[in-house]
Write a structure and sequence with these properties.
Elements: H1 9-28, H2 42-71, H3 75-103, H4 112-146, H5 157-185
Length: 186
């Protein structure tokens, strides 16, 4: 019996969310053995945060453009921008998980007061939004990729998509604030 994703969007959303979050938490908590991942040269590993900052900045632009296209009724352009945003997120996530699996999360190099009152709250909100975004993004992406554009009006795509895009945008921006605190300011 073939799997009909179109009729199983909530179930597929849940399954993909669980797998994705397990990978993220597994990498961050050190549950993925470092030996299963080939090690890149040091210069490549040290470049990942900077590459991810650029990827995040471009994703902010594509999300904003996607929302603007949707508001203007240019749904094919909206779809292109949001799929581009999803691809950028995938690139970001693969690079982030690779680096964290090999080296663990980056330690904050600045003063303890800044760490406690600025860095950790920003990081916490960024992480919380990223976690909340995962199922929302899977849901709207699965709806969008399993239906023609005209059929999406009969779904919760627009309503959930507005929430997902807003939270996703904020998460990317806060991620770049975290990057700036880790690699630029300190």
């Amino acid at each position: 019996m073939p799997l009909d994703v179109r009729t199983r969007v909530p179930e597929m959303t849940a399954a993909l969310s669980v797998v994705s979050l397990a990978l993220v938490f597994g990498a961050v908590l050190g549950a993925i053995p470092r030996g299963v991942v080939p090690r890149a040269p040091a210069f490549a590993l040290s470049a990942i945060p900077h590459v991810n900052a650029v990827v995040s900045a471009v994703a902010v632009v594509t999300i904003v453009a996607g929302v603007a296209f949707a508001r203007r009724g240019e749904f094919h352009r909206h779809r292109a921008m949001m799929l581009t945003s999803a691809a950028l997120f995938l690139v970001f996530l693969v690079l982030y998980l690779y680096k964290v699996t090999l080296e663990g999360p980056a330690a904050f190099p600045g003063p303890d007061a800044v760490r406690r009152w600025v860095y950790l709250p920003v990081l916490a909100v960024h992480i919380l939004l990223a976690i909340v975004c995962i199922p929302l993004l899977y849901y709207v992406l699965l709806l969008a990729t399993t239906r023609p554009v005209a059929a999406l009006t009969d779904t919760a795509h627009a309503r959930v998509g507005r929430i997902a895009a807003s939270l996703w945008l904020i998460s990317f921006v806060l991620g770049n604030v975290v990057y700036a605190l880790l690699y630029v300011v300190y």
